[in-house]
Amino acid sequence: MNIVTPRVFIAATQQNDGKTTTALGLFAVLKKRLGRIGFIKPVGQRFEQVGNQRIDEDSLLMDRTFGVQTPIEDMSPIAVEPDFTRRYIDNANNDFLVRRLQNSFDRACWEKEFCLIEGTGHAGVGSVFDLSNARVARLLQSKVILITRGGIGRPIDEVALNQALFEKEGVEIVGVILNKILPDKYEHVRDFARRGLERLGIELLGAIPAEPLLSSPTLNQIRRQVKGEFIHAGQESLLRVGKVIIGAMSARNVVSHITPQTLVITPGDREDIILTVLPGAVTENEPTPPITGLLLSGDLRPHPRVMEMIARSRVPVITTPFDSYTAASSIHSMTVKTMPGDHEKISRIQTVVEQYVDVDRLLEKLVSGHA
User: Fold this and answer.
1) Pairing between strand 173-181 and 144-149?
2) What is the model's pTM?
3) How far apart, in whole angstroms, are the C-alpha atoms of residue 326 and residue 191?
4) 3-state DSSP call for residue 224?
5) d(CA 126, CA 144)
6) Which domains occur in the chain, in start order?
């Protein structure tokens, strides 16, 4: 197996702490500085069908964003299907999986100046089939950078738990990146977290403030989340939603809650609300506030005359079988992933990582071996 190409394993203390965001940003920065960069996600749990292969969605994102020049099946060698764990426990085939990982890693590193390895969560994820993140990092002879959510007490406790498992496998954590720090607490959290991590013998390599853009879903992501369909202006599916309100009040009161990038959820038969929020459906002295879209709940369609007004408007409209409360709850709890082609978000991620992560220090610890 390749032991020459510099590499780093990106792990996290929890799901959705920002591994993929960090990987995207680091890839862009390292590509600018070093040239050809490799990428592999050894074990993937969320995948898409590509031909007859199941490929991790983060590997697809990296390939479609950067053109990684590695066979896509080697960027995503193991996809954990729904029955993967049961089949493994029935008939463990660890030697085969290890060879597959290491062979794919060799191809991911081929003619590359650096290789990024993205994990699947905290250090213990994958232990049930003997490929925890900690063990995979050891198998690929990689040091680790650990991503955790912004804060002081809980994140440092979680770092300590992960540190114990990585150390058990003989894997070094070269540093921590704090992500999603509340802007008004940024300096306070960064200072105390740095001092707290030093007590564990770990260096703080980055502190990234919360970015509203990165947690704002597009209309198409919401449509998929609520199992809906566009009935108008589907071409605007990449518009971003910053606020969601339920139209369960008078039309006038709904208007008072609308700000830019608002998605209004209302039953499909609340025609008073629909007509109020559509451009041109109010009087001249009461201009329509800007909305990003309209989500009609309960699979209810408005009267044909209202549908005609929808067709003349510029507002994207989605229908969903969910009731308003279920739709709003589902949107509130959804994980907002970065999608291929979301150039605004990807560009912002690259800028944020370059600004808030000490890439020079990371490279010093990885490439020169000096801690």
Assistant:
1) parallel
2) 0.88
3) 40
4) helix
5) 16
6) 7-215+338-368 (3.40.50.300), 219-333 (3.40.1390.20)
